[in-house]
Every structure is written in structure tokens, then in C-alpha cells.
């Protein structure tokens, strides 16, 4: 079986050759992780040499998983937290909920209360003044506007400038950073101006890793883990029998389509030719894993079996190690927390670029 490796630019000086500014005996830089979810970004920073000193999320379903793998997490509304009681930190992580800025969401930006969570981060920056703040969001953030019509990256940059932070942002594809998934995310890095760092985002990583679907599926499951799979709805079960590996709903004979999909098929131009029920082949790289886990709007279908990917399989697409356990009785909530997470390896390379360029002594 052929295995096509993800091609990335090979650089004369690779990311891994950069010298860290930390001494071998240095203390670990301290991190606060907000909107931490099950811990993808936090784990990436921990793996790069940071210490998580406080984590927060609003969703109770992530508590067991986060604490099993990473340590204590405060489950509460961050707006209700007394910011002055938070521990001192060197880096503040803020993977703010993406729905207000997502093309698949409501696009209400700061008009959605979740979009205003930026103000909570700003209030922490005013008090704790960490050297670095890291925002992560969907690609749609770049074109989203606040309630005054100002583009969000410009608005955020101005807010950070008032607090003494220089801002750097870039759209990254997780597949360029050892993640077996094409997942585009915006990272906004604010660095305190007195640090004097002209931050450079990590170059795409030249790696021998095979990032294809087939490579992920070929690895045996951990011996102590059962195959947890979220069962497909009856309609999806009927439809996927017509979809070959590498195909989509466009392969389903018209007569088998439900009425709403026939309506779309009848006027593809009007509906911008959607690609529902995508079923990636073994030689392709997985598309974006979503929190919804719906077969209609994400490539969640196993290429050869009549099912969704299992919890462990989608965790691997998000570059969670097999040692990371997802705890809880609800399989659907496990899909959601994994889909909402920042891919671990992407978080690691962002963290590594920070720790290599900034003096935390």
C-alpha cells in the first residue's frame, strides 16, 4: 500500500537547530492556560518545557480528562474569577472559543458574548503582565470585525499595544507541524515590548513522519483501551455505503439522497458546491476534525469501515499521544473535547519557538 508523505519545504537551517536562550539549570517558565479544554495546547507547552500553574475552562465535561493527564483545572466562568488571586505567570494562553469567528458558526464576533472573552484576557494582562500572551483561533478570525466594524486582528493589536505588548500573528496549517491533519488556525502572539523580541513563527517542520490517514490507522490500539466509537445516525448509515474512500456525498446516487440534499444537489452553484460526507482515503491527509463530529460536515468517516473514527483515532489526528486518556462516560463529549482542542504538536512547536527566542530568566 502506497504512503504519500506530506510535502513541506525543506530548509537549510531547520527549526530544531535554533539555540534556546534558557540555561540548562533554568526554572521552567510558568504558564496560565485559559479556555484550556481537555488540554491540547497546555500539553504542547508542557512538552516544550513550560510549567502549567493554573488552568481554567467553563465546560465541566473536560475536568476529568484534564486532571487525569495534566493536573488541576478550575471549572468556572473566567469572568467570575478574581484575577488578582491568579498565580504569577510568564505566558498566558488563550484559546478563546472559536464559534463567534468561524465560517461554520454565527460570525457574530464580539456581538457574541464569547467574543467578548477577549476583555477577560486583557484584564488578566493588566494585572499579571506576563512576558507573552498567546491567542489561538480559527481562520475566520482574520476577517471578523468587532461591533464598530474594525477587523479583529487590528482591534486586538491596538488593545495589546496600549498594555505595552507588540503583536505578531500568522495563519498556520497544523499539517506543517507534525500533525496528521490539514487544520488552519490563526496564532496571535503578544510579547511585552520591554522584552525586545521581534518574534518569528516556527518554519514548517521538515519531518519523515507519514501524516496520511493510512499511517494513523495502521498503528495498533493501546492494549488497555477499548475501541470507543460514536454510532452513526440511521440516515448516515444508509448513505455512506455509496461513498468510496476518497469520495463524498457527490458519489451518492441522486435517488438515495434525502430531500434536503436533493435540493442542494439541484442548485450546487447557489450552495457553493458543498462537500458533505467527505470520506478521506488512506493516502490523503485528514481534513479538519470538528467538535460536532457530524459526518455531513467533517471527514469523520472511516475509509473502509461503516462507522465514524473511534475516539483514539481522532485523538491521533489531533496528535494526542496514546498515553493521553480521555475520561468520562459520554463518547459524544469525548469527540467534542478532542475536536475543540489545539493539536498537541502544533502547540509544541509554537511553545518551542517562544522558549527559544525569549529569555525567561
Using only C-alpha atoms, the radius of gyration works out to 21 Å
Query: Total helix count?
Result: 10
CATH evolutionary superfamily of one domain:
Vaccinia Virus protein VP39
CATH topology annotation of one domain: Rossmann fold
Secondary structural class:
alpha/beta
General form: globular
Q: Could you estimate the helical fraction of the residues in percent?
A: 10-25%
Low-confidence stretches: 1-21, 99-115
Instruction: Give the amount of beta strand, in percent.
Output: 5-15%
Layout of helices and strands, plus pairs?
Layout: E1 30-34, H1 40-47, E2 51-57, H2 63-69, E3 74-75, E4 91-94, H3 117-128, E5 132-138, H4 152-162, E6 165-173, E7 184-192, H5 213-218, H6 234-240, H7 259-265, H8 311-317, H9 331-340, H10 344-357
Parallel strand pairs: 1-2, 1-4, 2-3, 4-5
Antiparallel strand pairs: 5-7, 6-7
Helix pairs in contact: 1-10
Amino acid at each position: 500500500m502506497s504512503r504519500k508523505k506530506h510535502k513541506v519545504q525543506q530548509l537549510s537551517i531547520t527549526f530544531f537547530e535554533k539555540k534556546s536562550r534558557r540555561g540548562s539549570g533554568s526554572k521552567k517558565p510558568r504558564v496560565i492556560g485559559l479556555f484550556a479544554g481537555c488540554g491540547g495546547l497546555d500539553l504542547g507547552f508542557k512538552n516544550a518545557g513550560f510549567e502549567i500553574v493554573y488552568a481554567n475552562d467553563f465546560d465541566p465535561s473536560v475536568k476529568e480528562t484534564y486532571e487525569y493527564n495534566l493536573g488541576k483545572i478550575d471549572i468556572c466562568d473566567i469572568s467570575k474569577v478574581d484575577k488578582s488571586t491568579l498565580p504569577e505567570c510568564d505566558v498566558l494562553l488563550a484559546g478563546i472559543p472559536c464559534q463567534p469567528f468561524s465560517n461554520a458558526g454565527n460570525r457574530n464576533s464580539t456581538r457574541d458574548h464569547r467574543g467578548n472573552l477577549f476583555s477577560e484576557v486583557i484584564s488578566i494582562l493588566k494585572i499579571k503582565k506576563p512576558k507573552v500572551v498567546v491567542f489561538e483561533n480559527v481562520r475566520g478570525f482574520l476577517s471578523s470585525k468587532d461591533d464598530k466594524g474594525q477587523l479583529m486582528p487590528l482591534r486586538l493589536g491596538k488593545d495589546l499595544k496600549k498594555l505595552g505588548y507588540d503583536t505578531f500573528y500568522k495563519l498556520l496549517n497544523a499539517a506543517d507541524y507534525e500533525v496528521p491533519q490539514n487544520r488552519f488556525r490563526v496564532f496571535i502572539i503578544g510579547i511585552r515590548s520591554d522584552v525586545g523580541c521581534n518574534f518569528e513563527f516556527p518554519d514548517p517542520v521538515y519531518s519523515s513522519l507519514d501524516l496520511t490517514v493510512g499511517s494513523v490507522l495502521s498503528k495498533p490500539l493501546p492494549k488497555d483501551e477499548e475501541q470507543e466509537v460514536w454510532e452513526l445516525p440511521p440516515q448516515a448509515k444508509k448513505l455512506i455505503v455509496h461513498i468510496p474512500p476518497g469520495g463524498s456525498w457527490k458519489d451518492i446516487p441522486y435517488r438515495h439522497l434525502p430531500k434536503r440534499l436533493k435540493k442542494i444537489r439541484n442548485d450546487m452553484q447557489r450552495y457553493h458546491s458543498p462537500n458533505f460526507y467527505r470520506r478521506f482515503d488512506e493516502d490523503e491527509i485528514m481534513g479538519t476534525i470538528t467538535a460536532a463530529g457530524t459526518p455531513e460536515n467533517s471527514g469523520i468517516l472511516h475509509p473502509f469501515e461503516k462507522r465514524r473514527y473511534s475516539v483514539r483515532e481522532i485523538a491521533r489526528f489531533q496528535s494526542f499521544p496514546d498515553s493521553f486518556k480521555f475520561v468520562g462516560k459520554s463518547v459524544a463529549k469525548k469527540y467534542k473535547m478532542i475536536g475543540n482542542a489545539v493539536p498537541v504538536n502544533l502547540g509544541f512547536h509554537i511553545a518551542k519557538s517562544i522558549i527559544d527566542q525569549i529569555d525567561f530568566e
